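Hi there, hope your week has been kind to you so far. Please have a think about how the structure follows from the sequence. I've dropped the whole record in just underneath, so have a look:

_____
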Amino acid sequence: MRIVRRLKALKTYRVNGEPRLLIITWLGLLCWVSTVFGGPINPHDVILRMESAYQNVTDYTALFLKRERIRGTLQPLEKIEFRFQLPFKVYMAWQEPHPGRMIVYVEGENNNKMQVNPGGLLQMLRFSLDPSSGLATRDNHQTIRQAGLGNLIDLILSQYRRGSKTGQITLRSLGDGEVDGRPADHLSLLCHADEAAGYYAKRADIWIDKAHHLPTRLLVYDWNKQLYAHYEYRRLKLNPGLGPEAFKLPAVKVLPSISAESDDKG
């Protein structure tokens, strides 16, 4: 960097044969440049910091973007109003491509089943659905019990910790990035093992917010170098203090619980 080269050159100059003042000035300026422009990051520290950062979160809201490859076909991008609260409450309302669809899941309530408003022509109906049923999972990589930032952090760190111990995964920094107009650290996880080793993906690009240290974007690629999943949190608001009404569906006609299985997901 040009600034650093000029700062190094300062120590060769002398005033009345005495260079010490300039050396002190040089060190001070170097510290200032490091503070303003930022020094090199340690990707290991950045990725592990997510875990402790999430311990300060009790609830949050976001616009959740989701795109997954199901049975070999990349699905359309989904835009979902997302709410979450500990110990485990989830509200999801689709904006695209299924406007009107809503799901609420509150662990320990409704016999641990999701409450579903399918939207569209059936928007006046509501039914209960087992989160593990074939109907609930056929177009998703995970169940609703695996939704949210906490589960995303667990997924990333479980893969990293397993692979780093065996040398099957390497982590590196790709520099500064941005998600939803906010500065982020861009990291990459690369798996060197075969698909049969049981890792989630061949490669993952992760953007971790520089302010709150939580992952706000994850791009996952399979062993064919195809996009396998894209998850992103925009307009993330932490600890808004959500009340019980934030995890309720509008009152509509209720149908009996649905538990029928269908084909397994791809």
Remarks:
- Residues 20-37 form the longest helix (18 residues).
- Residues 2-37 form one domain.
